[in-house]
Amino acid sequence: MADPILFWSILLDPFDQVRIPFADWVSSGIQWLVTHFRPLFQSVRVPINSLLQGFQQLLVTSPPTLVLGSLTALAWQLAGRQVGFLSFLALSLIGWVGAWEEAMVSLSLVLTAVVVCVLLGIPLGVLCARSDPFEGLLRPLLDAMQTLPVFVYLVPVVMLFGIGEAPGVIATIIYALPPLIRLTNLGIRQVPAEVVEAAHAFGATPNQILWETQIPLAMPTILAGVNQTVLFALGMSVVTSMIAVPGLGLVVLRGLNGLNVGMAATGGLGILLLAIALDRVTQQVGHIDFQRSWYRRGLIGWGWKRWRRWQMSREVESI
After folding, report:
1. Which of 45, 95, 107, 246 could disulfide-link 100, Cβ–Cβ 3.0 to 4.6 Å?
2. What one-character-per-residue DSSP string does 97-160 give?
């Protein structure tokens, strides 16, 4: 070594002499994408924005009593009477504290993100379960999507898609998608090999094995993934208030900026109640007995039993 001082300097502090320009690479890559593919990314906003506007027209512009009754009935039908009553109380309390409209906006954002996540996540999970190389390629990306700080998503999303509701939904989809892919993959891989071999022995095709054997047996795990996606989406919808996404998150952000504890607590309470209602509904959906007909379960089943009893009493009276 010609210069012993430089040698010892590198040996004692190698990070001072050698730097990988990672930040410059990322900035250059994002700028290249913005320059060449911004119209493509902008076009992605169109279907997401259409779906979001549909949910908002349904939930925000309809009378609160009609929305409350419909959501309670849906929760009862999907998850049983107790969860329906719990959802009624949670949504009523949100309305009484003055956060109804913001909660419906947040619910619209979450429903839009979950619909897109289900459409993307379950097929990708199935592909991962059927192809080890594809799973190997996708796993590092899923690790990055789940472990990167949520604020990091916002910078490239704003550069590529701008600000507002649709970019907020896209950031939410990126954050909430990995659990559904992972649990769909896990659920299908956990189907006993003996069951798959038996289906093969009976002459079933790969598609028949997937739709009639693997997916039904993996359904509880897949629905657990949907539950995680719903909760992740609700949490991310709060963070996206930083890019001008309305809803309960914006109420919390305004309370924080103005040091208004009451406003921040109102937004926080709305998020908590909405999370409890969504969590209980999606958890119970995983325990549905699909062997029973849909009209014999939930609210419709309750009405069906009452109607049958009334019909039988009429027959007895006529005799």
Report:
1. 95
2. TT-HHHHHHHHHHHHHHHHHHHHHHHHHHHHHHH-HHHHHHHHHHHHHHHHS-HHHHHHHHHHH
Find out whether 52 and 106 touch, Cβ atoms under 8 Å: no
DSSP code per residue over 277-316: HHHHHHHHHTT--TTS-GGGSHHHHHHHHHHHHHHHHHHH
Instruction: Give the CA count within 13 Å in the CB-facing half-sphere of 252.
Output: 20
Digit-coded pLDDT (tens) for 261-305: 888 898 889 888 988 888 888 887 766 666 666 667 777 777 877
User: Within 13 A of 68's CA, how many CA atoms are on the CB side?
Assistant: 16
Q: Tell whether the model's pLDDT for residue 308 goes beyond 70.
A: yes
Enter the pTM of the model.
0.83
Mean pLDDT of all residues in 130-150: 84
**Residue 7 token pair:** 């040698």
Total residues belonging to the chain = 319
Instruction: Compute the mean pLDDT over every residue in the chain, rounded to the nearest whole number.
Output: 84
How far apart CA 181 and CA 47 sit, in angstroms, is 22
Both structure tokens of 259: 């040091």
Q: Alpha carbon 139 to chain centroid distance?
A: 19
Angle separating helix axes 248-257 and 215-239, nearest 10 degrees: 30
Q: Which of 187-196, 205-214, 297-306 has the lowest mean pLDDT?
A: 297-306
Looking at residue 81, its pLDDT comes to: 85
Burial class (CB in 10 A: 0-12, 13-18, 19+), 222: buried
**Spatial distance between the Cα atoms of 169 and 241, rounded to a whole number of angstroms:** 11
Spatial separation of the C-alpha atoms in residues 238 and 259, rounded to whole Å? 17
Cβ partners under 8 Å of residue 12, min gap 6: none
Residue pair 48/41 in contact by the 8 Å Cβ criterion: no
Which pLDDT belongs to residue 145? 80
